[in-house]
């Protein structure tokens, strides 16, 4: 029971932290530090190529593909609770990100962009806050880390967790290096993603016991 309420505590701490940063952004109080970090990492050099790879891994198309594969795997293994949990988590995360972007309507540091899906524009402005790349990737990777506890081979679980943590750091960082997001965009996105994940986890594990992948 304590574990379930620990999920709720993490959810609330991250949510409050997100709201704090969001309000600071809304009133322009993060602009100086955002510009400072932007100028600090402007000359990426050889680092730029690696960051482009990382940002492609976190693209909507890549995350959609990985999400679909995971859902198919869960469905084939008859893990109904995990299937619906991940479905709700993923779809809700996308809608949450879209709602927050439309609410805050923060312009990007670079040129104005439109939302694209598989190379086709939706004629909708892609706002900066919070980062969609970051939210999509963090939510997916947190779920991946969560289900690794069901793996029987611990060394595989450790490798998966290490790679996931590396991507959770690298993908958001790539958005700042490539000058398509401010630092506050990705920090806020990480916080709200963690909040959303643990909020969903609290709701699902409150009713259903944790399940194991066979």
Largest sheet: 2 strands, antiparallel
Give the overall shape, derived from the CA principal axes. globular
Tally the structural domains. Answer: 1
Protein structure class: mainly alpha
Compute the number of helices.
Answer: 8
- Strand % is under 5%
Mean pLDDT: 85
Number of strands: 2
Q: Helical percent range?
A: over 70%
Give the radius of gyration: 18 Å
**Poorly predicted residue ranges:** 118-123
Strand order of the largest sheet: 1-2
Give the topology string: H per helix, E per strand.
Answer: HHHHHEEHHH
The end-to-end distance, rounded to whole angstroms, is: 25 Å
Main location: membrane
Organism: Alkalihalophilus marmarensis DSM 21297
GO molecular function: hydrolase activity
Pfam family, one: PAP2
Q: Key features?
A:
single chain, 214 residues, mainly alpha, cell membrane, PAP2/HPO_sf, transmembrane, transmembrane helix, hydrolase activity
Descriptive overview:
This is Phosphatidic acid phosphatase type 2/haloperoxidase domain-containing protein. It is a multi-pass membrane protein. It is found in: Cell membrane. InterPro entries: PAP2/HPO, PAP2/HPO_sf. With 214 residues, the protein is mainly alpha-helical. The chain has one domain. 71% of the residues lie in helices and 5% in strands. It contains 8 helices and 2 strands, in the order H-H-H-H-H-E-E-H-H-H. It has a two-stranded antiparallel ribbon. Strand 1 (114-117) and strand 2 (120-125) form a beta hairpin. Helix 1 (2-26) runs antiparallel to helix 8 (183-207), helix 3 packs across helix 7 (154-177) and helix 4 (60-76) runs antiparallel to helix 5.
């Amino acid at each position: 029971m304590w574990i379930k309420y620990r999920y709720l505590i993490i959810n609330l701490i991250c949510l409050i932290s997100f709201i704090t940063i969001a309000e600071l952004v809304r009133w322009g109080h993060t602009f100086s530090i955002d510009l400072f970090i932007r100028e600090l990492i402007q000359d990426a050099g050889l680092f730029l190529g690696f960051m482009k790879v990382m940002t492609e891994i976190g693209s909507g198309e890549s995350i959609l593909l990985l999400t679909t594969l995971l859902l198919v795997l869960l469905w084939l293994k008859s893990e109904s609770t995990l299937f619906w949990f991940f479905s709700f988590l993923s779809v809700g995360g996308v809608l949450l990100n879209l709602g927050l972007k439309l609410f805050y309507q923060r312009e990007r540091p670079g040129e104005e962009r439109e939302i694209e899906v598989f190379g086709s524009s939706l004629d909708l402005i892609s706002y900066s806050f919070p980062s969609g790349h970051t939210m999509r990737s963090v939510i997916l990777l947190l779920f991946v880390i969560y289900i690794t506890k069901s793996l029987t081979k611990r060394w595989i679980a450790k490798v998966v967790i290490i790679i996931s943590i590396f991507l959770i750091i690298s993908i958001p960082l790539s958005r700042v290096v490539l000058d398509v997001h401010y630092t506050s965009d990705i920090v806020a996105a990480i916080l709200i993603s963690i909040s959303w994940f643990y909020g969903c986890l609290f709701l699902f594990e409150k009713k259903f016991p944790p399940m194991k992948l066979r």
